[in-house]
Automatic annotation (TrEMBL):
GO molecular function, one term: oxidoreductase activity
InterPro entries tied to this protein: NAD(P)-bd_dom_sf
Organism taxonomic ancestry: Eukaryota, Sar, Stramenopiles, Ochrophyta, Bolidophyceae
Organism expressing this protein natively: Triparma strigata
Keywords: Oxidoreductase
Protein name, as recorded: Gfo/Idh/MocA-like oxidoreductase N-terminal domain-containing protein
């Protein structure tokens, strides 16, 4: 494992033991205040106002400045969860200095979620040296040659191409781009070119590339014969209303939205590219396509369940299954001669304790944050460490992987719909 990640684990266990040592609820002002800082402020009275970034106390890790672009609402936004992890000091190489939130600090400020956001902002500002800004243009520009700066872009997918342009203009030399990065291959390709022309590295938030169940299954499959299937489930209610709302909100479709993580695994680890696909076969018994009206009344056609097997020209075979109403877990299996010989799930038994703890702290947060918590940390740590030191972000998907993943999604969607018609 990377040294940087070992440091993260060490700081995490230091954090865990400090929590159990300090204990007092009265010194923990809010659920999103850093527990490490709260522990310190209880133990060392008067230190709190000058202590903002726990990692500086525990390690001498070189840090990169991180600008979070597109935070989203507390409990709901992916960006919000990234912020919480950095504020907790769980990402030693990152120094979160600014949170850019165009909507909740602008047109959406008076919405219910905007009011929630303002309350969270107040709590964070009281405890951390973090600035909240409406636009990247409000940020002081730095020289990327002397000041390593990451933009963690987690806006709506359709807004992310413009946010990348503004992040480059603000002097960010490394971009952590949430998946899928852009609505179309053409847009992501042009973002890739823009970044390259400005000497900016773009790494993608495909956290399943670094997660435990994937590495366990890949490890088993490297030593045993069998077909690997990556399975991803969501917990939507199986009704026309619930799925219609899901199809409308995730209008890029099942493959570019939910199953995109699995496609990134295929591109990263199974040589899958559009040109290298020899065949794709839909599992007609498992799969289902529906045309449903969303809340706006507009109808959309999408898969509510899809399973398929790809065989590559280089002789690899791998399957993916995704089900909008299958539950809230992800796992992978290895099947040989019709018999399942290996299965590993996320979360595993060890992680269930961690999931319960985080859920207790954030009972209303999106449930998918909890089992993926360690993987979000790992990707942020590797990207920040790359920006601060130049050390390769091992296992993290590059924008080339991101482009090919979207290409595969655009290729497979009509092909699978045709097979299921
Ligand atoms: N890696 C993962 O596991 C994972 C999980 C979820 C989302 N994501 C990705 O993260 C990114 C952000 O997703 P999200 O679910 O946090 O999105 P979100 O819509 O909740 O928030 C993103 C941004 O959208 C803006 N916004 C929110 N409501 C708006 C409104 N009504 N009108 C206009 N703008 C509004 C806000 O500025 C916010 O910062 C996407 O690229 C998504 O694909 C990744």
């Amino acid at each position: 494992m990377l040294a940087a990640v070992r440091t993260a684990a060490a700081s995490k266990s230091a954090f865990a033991s400090m929590r159990s040592f300090s204990g007092s609820a009265s010194i923990r002002p809010a659920r999103w205040a850093s527990p490490v800082i709260s522990g310190l402020s209880g133990g060392l009275s008067g230190v709190r106002s000058s202590v903002h970034t726990p990692r500086r106390l525990f390690s001498t890790v070189k840090t990169a400045e991180v600008i979070l672009v597109g935070c989203g609402a507390p409990d709901k936004g992916m960006g919000w969860y990234h912020a919480v992890q950095m504020l907790d000091g769980k990402v030693p190489s990152s120094n979160l200095t600014s949170i850019i939130e165009p909507y909740f600090l602008g047109a959406g400020a008076s919405s219910d979620a905007g009011v929630d956001f303002a309350a969270w902002q107040g709590e964070v500002e009281a405890d951390h040296e973090v600035k909240f800004l409406k636009s990247l243009s409000d940020l002081p520009v730095v020289d990327p040659k002397t000041s390593p700066r990451v933009a963690l872009i987690s806006g709506r997918t359709a807004d992310n191409p413009a946010l990348l342009t503004s992040s480059i203009a603000a002097g960010c030399n490394t971009i952590y781009l949430e998946k899928p990065g852009a609505p179309t291959v053409a847009e992501l390709q042009s973002m890739k070119q823009e970044a390259a022309a400005n000497n900016v590295t773009v790494l993608m938030g495909y956290n399943k590339n670094v997660c435990k169940y994937v590495s366990k299954v890949r490890d088993f499959a490297s030593k045993n014969e069998g077909l690997v299937t990556f399975v991803s489930n969501n917990a939507y209610e199986n009704t026309k209303e619930s799925l219609g709302e899901c199809f409308e909100r995730n209008s890029e479709g099942m493959l570019k939205n939910m199953a995109i993580h699995e496609l990134a695994l295929l591109v990263s680890f199974y040589d899958v590219t559009v040109e290298n696909i020899a065949s794709v076969v839909a599992d007609k018994e498992f799969s289902s396509v529906q045309t449903l009206a969303g809340p706006s009344g507009e109808e959309r056609t999408d898969f509510d369940k899809i399973k398929f097997t790809i065989t590559t020209k280089s002789g690899k075979q791998v399957s993916v299954a995704a089900d909008r109403c299958g539950g809230s877990d992800s796992y992978a299996t290895v099947v040989n001669d019709g018999k399942e010989i290996f299965k590993y799930s996320m979360p595993d038994e060890e992680d269930e304790i961690m999931v319960a703890e985080i859920q207790g702290r954030f009972p209303n947060a999106m449930p998918y944050f909890f089992p993926q918590d360690p993987d979000y940390i790992t990707v942020k740590e590797r990207v920040s460490s790359f920006c601060a030191t130049g050390k390769e972000a091992e296992g993290v998907a590059t924008i080339d992987i991101g482009v090919e993943t979207l290409r595969v999604a655009e290729f497979l969607t009509p092909e699978l719909q045709k097979q299921l018609a």
